[in-house]
Amino acid sequence: MSVEIVFNELSAATPATHSSIGSRWMETLIRTVKSAVEGGCSRSIRTCIPFKEILLARDYPIVKWLNDPAIDRERSRYFLALATRHPALIDLPEKDNESLGYEFYFNGENCKGLGVAHIIDGLAVSFPSDKRWDTHQIQISKHFIENDSIEEECVSIHHASTPEHIGLLRQAISNLLLIDITNGNDLWRRRGELFPALTFCDNIAGVLQAMGLGDPHLMQIRKKLFELDRYARGWITGPYDRNQIPFKVTPEHKATKEQYAAERTFQAPGGQYHIFEEHGRITPGNWRIYFDPSVGPGRILVGYIGKKPPSAAFPS
Question: Left, alpha or beta for 40 (phi > 0: left; psi -120 to 50: alpha)?
Answer without folding.
Answer: left
